[in-house]
Structures are given as structure tokens and as C-alpha cells.
Amino acid sequence: MLDATDQQYFQNLKHLWALFRETGEISPEVRPMIASSWMRSRDFHVDMTKPLRAPILSRPELHSLQAANQTLIDIAKPIMEKMHSLVGETKNLISLHNPDGYMLYSCGDEYYAEMETESLFSLGVCWQERYIGTNGITLVVLEDSPVQVYGAEHYCAAQHDGTCSAAPIHDRDGRIIGVLNMAGKDWSGTLHTLGLVALATFSIENQLTLLHSYRLVDTAISSISEGIVVVDQELCIQRINLGGEQILRAKKESLLGHSISTWFGSRHEELQLRLQKEIAPFSFAEEELIVGEHHISCNISIFPIVVEQHPEGAVLLLRRSRSINALANQVMGNRARYVFDSIITQAPQILNTIQTMESIAATNCTVLLEGESGTGKELFAHAIHSASHRKNGPFIAVNCASLPHSLVESELFGYEKGAFTGALGQGNPGKFELADGGTIFLDEIGELPLEIQSKLLRVLDSHRIFRIGGKTEKNLNIRVIAATNRDLQKEVRNHNFREDLYYRINVLSFHIVPLRERIGDVPLLANYFIEEINRRGERESKIISPECMRILEQHTWPGNVRELQNVILRAYYCSGKNDVILPEHLPDDLLHLLSNTRTPQPKQYSGEDTAQKEKIEQALSQCNGDTKEACKQLGVSRATLYRYLNYYNIQARTFKAKTKTT
């Protein structure tokens, strides 16, 4: 670094510059950096003696360039203005340039303001070496370090009465994104001037890094679906993300600067006290916030901000109660598993019912499903939900008959912390809350106690619930599907069911006919159930014999589809290693019920049929009733053989050889 107080040096510089102008020779006393710049300037044909002329951007071009560098300008501007206030007694111009030398912003002495008519100190002018010769801005970019150019070190004589002190500005990857320059007429104190400029660029770089980090954090916070609210020690909101705005149903502008103490009602004192004393995160579960006119139920995690053991505020993480409930529903599998195509039927009554259900599925009206136990009412409830706009929401099935009398209310409507002995410390949502945004299926609704029926009626009317021990209501967005195997009208007459509740749930009612009234579905369902078991791969696949299927079709099925499913499952396992389920594998009680069934009259066969029948009987006799061997002998598949057995009313087991005694 040169000694700026050495007047002899500056006089020598003028002599050395004049020698170069006249002879083209450069004295060893000239700094190598300056000597190289002089040579380049001469190669660019820059005139050393004429007034400086440099290209300048048009106004639209300047505005475009400034917009591209707006962040840099915004950060550098207050620092440059502070620098100017520190050196205000001297004639200095502080300018900000992009790496190509174009001036983006400047502030400085009136002396330079007057010279702006000369264009060199105007915004948008280019300070490249190729236009104005040796100068600090170009050398900073080439050297990537702070540079000072004194008087006659400038290539052009027009700059010999000033000094440039410039330093590079880097981004966080070390790339030069700008140059800060201070041009002065006073040569005294130039060492301190360069230090001031270097310190200013260091400050600018630090602020750029902080801004980048801030934007990364801001982007990360904004991308989080949960609400994030940052408050100071007075609980006033300093920052909130989009998720917070959505959860609180308010715009950022209406929240910033306002205290959150009003959100918590009487609990704000507890919040303030804990923030003063605790440094570990804590939470408020299922908190009912009051934000303006809205009552918002959410779970809040609170992270105190502590600086040097002094509380400075907190970060609040807000999660909708519905989000927590959604996670619980996902874990518990509370979703619909069936659609209308899952219903196995060819019965016109059921097909007509399905068609009507499909047309009303998209509505929000309450549905009542009536029918005997085992007819598949829950399957229809699943299908209605799956065909509605709520299909992605939860499906909560509640068997009202299985709820203990003392727990019905808490199971359905939930409870708050400390509502009763044994209550969970954080309270617990009920089935209705878990169903928010979806469907709740109240199976066996006729079993509900009368005192619960009145509360249920209020929920159905208002779509709002009070938890046990709660102080505020919670809004719900649910659809209710109820089911019963009772005659509710009779129950109303007997004062076992509220009449007003009956009419409230009986908006749309469907009667699911019993299996005995759609006997044609028995083979469809039986084969479906056996195929379902076969798909498990526990044993070799099995089929149901024609004799067995005839028996199934003759049964009245008081237990409906559920009974049929259980009979098929039992027969499958009782058939052992056999690949065909025979009548002997059916439950004894089912066979006993059919023991008095009249034997059908024998069919009359044609001559060809008679020959075919005898051929099959002969094969079965030779194979001792083994249908698999008989199929091989006859050259037909098992399915074909069983169709023949069914057609000719042949029972294969009658051909099994009796064990001989010796």
C-alpha cells in the first residue's frame, strides 16, 4: 500500500505518466498492476488527454439493470449513505457498480453532482477500462481485491486530480456481484478511505448472506402446511406463514403487530408465565382459539426463544385438530373399503336400491338403512361414502349396541382434560370429531339410550358438538348414515326411540331385503366367498359341488349374508385336503333343517342323455366315486363333470366303495 501523504510520490507519478505518454516506456517505479492497465488502455486506443467519454445506458436499460440488481442496491444504499455521512467534509462520490462497470447507484458531494452533466458520474455510465482507461473499478474486478488508484496512476489526465478507492462485493459462492467505489479530490487520509470501503463491502456481503439465509428460512416456513407464528416477549406477532393465515382464517396484515393473548382467553396468563420460566418446548392440545369472530380448534406446540437466558418470545406451531384427527384415522384405518361394485347381486330389488343410492350419494342428507342383521347394511354405507364428494375423508363406523352405557356420550362426543375420573390428561376427541370432513355410520342406532338420543338430535340439527367438560362448541362437517335391524316406528310407539330423532334420520331410507328374498344371489355369493378364501393361498383352490350348492339354495338363511359367509368358511376348512366342498362338509344343523325337504321327482331323459348318464355312473363306479379320476377317464374338466352331475342328479359319494371286513 502506498503512503498517501508522500507528496513527492504523486509528483513522480505525473512525471512517469508523462514519460509513458511521450515515449511509450514504463518506469519500474510504476506498480505492475498499473503498468499492465496502462498497456491495455493503450491497446484499447483510449485517448490520454481528451475529456472522458464512456457509453451510458438509456433510461429503460438502466431501469432494467437496476431491477436485476435491486437486492444489492437495497442493501448497499443505507451503508453508502452512512459512509457519506462519515466523510461529508470531503469532496467524495460513493458509487455502486455491477461487475461490468455500469454505475447502479451513487451518493456524494455536490461537486460531483454538478459534474454529472459531464456524464462520467451519471447513473448507467460504464467505467470499463476499454472506455476510460485505468481506474479502480476495472482493477478490482481483475484483481478480485481492494484497490486504490492515485492521481496520475489513472490513464487519462482528466482523472489525475482524484483518487479511487474500490473493493469487490461477493455473493456467498465467492463470485463478484458488484464493486463499491469512493472517488475523492482530497488525497489526504486515503489509507483510511480504502479501509472504510473494504469494511463497507464486508458489511454488504454479510447482509447478503443473512438475507439469503432469511429467504431460505422464509421459503421453508412458507412451504410448511402447519401454521407458524413468531411472537416477541410481549406476545405480539412478528411473523406468520401462509399456513398460519389459513388456519386462523385471517390475513397477515391484520395479524402482524397484534398480541395473541386474546386468542387464549383466560389461559393467556398461563402462556405468558410459562414463557417467562420455561426454555423447553411445551404444548396446548386441542386448544380452542378465539381469533376475531372465529373459534378455531387446533393443537399448539410452543418453542420459547431464549437469548442469553433471557426470554425474547416464542415460535408457535399450529396444527388443525382435523389434521391430527386425520393422522389418527389413517393409523386406525378409518376409511371406506367398499364401493357399489363391491356388492355381489343380481337381484332386481338390490340393483334398484343401488341405482337410487348412487343418485343421492353426492348429497349431504342423512340416510337410514333398515334391514335384518347380516344383510350387509355397513357395506352399503361404505359404498354411499365412496361415491360421495367425501370419499377422501374419514369413514367412522360405530356399533351403538357395543358401547357401554356409561361411556356412550364420551365415545361419541369426546371429553376435555379432567372432565371425569380416568379421563386422559389431554382430553380425547369423540367419534363425531374423528368423522369431521367425512361420514359417520351409526350402526344399530336403535340401541342408543334415550338421554343420548336427545344430544344426538341436537348434533344432527346444528352440526356442532360440546365435549364433556368443554366450554365451547366445535363445528363439524359430517354426513350421518344410520342403520337398524329394529322396527323404529314400533320403537317410537313403545317410547324406546325419540320420534323427533326418527324423523331427523329418516330423510332417505332404504330397506335391504334379506337373502331369502333374493335366493338367486346365493350361488353368486357362495362362489365369491370361496374365491376370496382361495386367493389367500392357504390351501389348494376348492370349488363347491352341485349337490352342496343345491342345499345352500334351499336354505332360508335367517342370518343372511353373514351366515352364508360363515358356512362357506367352515365348509372350506372342514373339507380338509379335498378340492371339492361336498354336502358332508356343511354344518349338521343346516343339513338337519333340510332333512324333511321333499325329494325331487326323477327327470325324464332322452336316449342320448340316458347313455351319457350311464357312462358317467360307470366311470364313477370304476373310480370308487373319485371325481378327479373320473374326470381323467371321461376326458372332461371338473367344472364340466359337476354340471353333468347336477343335470343328471348324480351324487358321486354313493359310488364310493364300502370297506370290506376280513
TrEMBL record:
<keyword id="KW-0238">DNA-binding</keyword>
<protein>
    <submittedName>
        <fullName>Sigma 54-interacting transcriptional regulator</fullName>
    </submittedName>
</protein>
<feature type="domain" description="Sigma-54 factor interaction">
    <location>
        <begin position="343"/>
        <end position="573"/>
    </location>
</feature>
<dbReference type="InterPro" id="IPR025662">
    <property type="entry name" value="Sigma_54_int_dom_ATP-bd_1"/>
</dbReference>
<dbReference type="InterPro" id="IPR009057">
    <property type="entry name" value="Homeodomain-like_sf"/>
</dbReference>
<keyword id="KW-0547">Nucleotide-binding</keyword>
<dbReference type="InterPro" id="IPR029016">
    <property type="entry name" value="GAF-like_dom_sf"/>
</dbReference>
<dbReference type="Pfam" id="PF02954">
    <property type="entry name" value="HTH_8"/>
</dbReference>
<dbReference type="Pfam" id="PF01590">
    <property type="entry name" value="GAF"/>
</dbReference>
<dbReference type="InterPro" id="IPR025943">
    <property type="entry name" value="Sigma_54_int_dom_ATP-bd_2"/>
</dbReference>
<dbReference type="InterPro" id="IPR025944">
    <property type="entry name" value="Sigma_54_int_dom_CS"/>
</dbReference>
<dbReference type="InterPro" id="IPR002197">
    <property type="entry name" value="HTH_Fis"/>
</dbReference>
<dbReference type="InterPro" id="IPR027417">
    <property type="entry name" value="P-loop_NTPase"/>
</dbReference>
<keyword id="KW-0067">ATP-binding</keyword>
<keyword id="KW-0804">Transcription</keyword>
<dbReference type="InterPro" id="IPR058031">
    <property type="entry name" value="AAA_lid_NorR"/>
</dbReference>
<dbReference type="InterPro" id="IPR035965">
    <property type="entry name" value="PAS-like_dom_sf"/>
</dbReference>
<dbReference type="Pfam" id="PF00158">
    <property type="entry name" value="Sigma54_activat"/>
</dbReference>
<dbReference type="InterPro" id="IPR003593">
    <property type="entry name" value="AAA+_ATPase"/>
</dbReference>
<keyword id="KW-0805">Transcription regulation</keyword>
<dbReference type="Pfam" id="PF25601">
    <property type="entry name" value="AAA_lid_14"/>
</dbReference>
<dbReference type="InterPro" id="IPR002078">
    <property type="entry name" value="Sigma_54_int"/>
</dbReference>
<dbReference type="InterPro" id="IPR003018">
    <property type="entry name" value="GAF"/>
</dbReference>
